[in-house]
Amino acid sequence: MFKAILIDKTTTAHDAKLVNLDDAQLPEGDVLVRVEFSSLNYKDALAITGRAPVVRHYPMVPGIDLAGTVEHSSHPDWKPGDQVILNGWGIGETHWGGLAQKARVNGDWLVPLPDGLTTRQAMAIGTAGYTAMLSVLALEKHGIKPGDGPILVTGASGGVGSVAIVLLASLGYEVVASTGRLSEADYLKSLGATGIIEREQLATPGKPLQKEQWAGAVDTVGGHTLVNVCATTRYRGAVTACGLAGGMDFPGTVAPFILRGVTLYGIDSVMAPKMLRMLAWSRLAQNLDLHKLAAMTTEITLKDAISAASDLLRGKLRGRTVVDVSH
């Protein structure tokens, strides 16, 4: 038997609770992982609370990422004792996920835990930090270098935003953080932000083209914020889009793209190919300041994750929330 959060749904109720499950109840897969840590992400919070149709079928164990040790494998790449990471590929949505003490998964989805990281640190990074790294890789591939100008990070107090600030600052970029919680200014500066702007400056409709400010940007919000970020990005700059907390629509114009040559990169963390995943995790192990990661991380138990999901959606959490599934 092992503990897990299980979400079930009827025509009248959506229920998430901590339960005991048997190995025989796990879905199909060629690798059995003893999960050591998971994390709480925005998508997990939506799934647990039922605020959005993240879960595709029920019952479902939520958790879009996990780190742990292989217990059993019939996959040629993995053997018992291997330490692994899994994020994306539909876990927590279409396949039982990481908010449990065990997971049976497709071995093709796994990547090795990089040297220099523990399983706890890997989940302190989690899907959010991995997504931040994919955004940084896109800006680098675009050719934006430290010294080219400031990089804007929106939703800066959240998981993706916090890790993006640390990564960009450690690589030598000037980082400006946009947040709706100015009370977190000292926290954001401690991560490496040199400037803070209020979320409302970007959250309402603006002109199709505005004053050029950013060499690049990491947007975790979407909606009017993303439109305004594009409208204020410098000629030939780049913006990465990796979130939709502010809405899925894009109520803007093509002006920044055809008049300033701005590039908008979509960041997909769920289905990214394995080589890109391994590059991202390798760079995280190499470039992320682990002391700053620890400072932005809160640890909770599996039991706590249900109430913490509501807190996350209400904006009461900052940085990263790692889940110790052993409790």
Question: Can you lay out the helices and strands and say which pair or pack?
Answer:
Layout: E1 2-9, E2 14-21, E3 31-39, H1 42-49, E4 65-73, E5 83-87, E6 102-105, E7 111-112, H2 119-142, E8 151-153, H3 159-170, E9 175-179, H4 185-191, E10 195-198, H5 200-203, E11 214-219, H6 223-231, E12 233-241, H7 255-259, E13 263-266, H8 274-287, H9 290-295, E14 297-301, H10 305-313, E15 320-324
Parallel strand pairs: 8-9, 8-11, 9-10, 11-12, 12-13, 14-15
Antiparallel strand pairs: 1-2, 3-4, 3-6, 3-15, 4-5, 5-7
Helix pairs in contact: 1-10, 2-3, 2-8
Report on the architecture of this protein:
30% of the residues lie in helices and 26% in strands. The chain is an alpha/beta fold and 327 residues long. The chain has two domains: 2-113 and 296-324, Quinone Oxidoreductase, Chain A, domain 1, CATH 3.90.180; 127-266, Rossmann fold, CATH 3.40.50.720. The longest helix is centred in the middle third of the chain and has 24 residues, at 119-142. The chain is globular.
Highlighted features:
single chain; about 325 residues; alpha/beta; Quinone Oxidoreductase, Chain A, domain 1; seven-stranded mixed beta sheet; six-stranded parallel beta sheet; 10 helices; 15 strands; about 25% strand
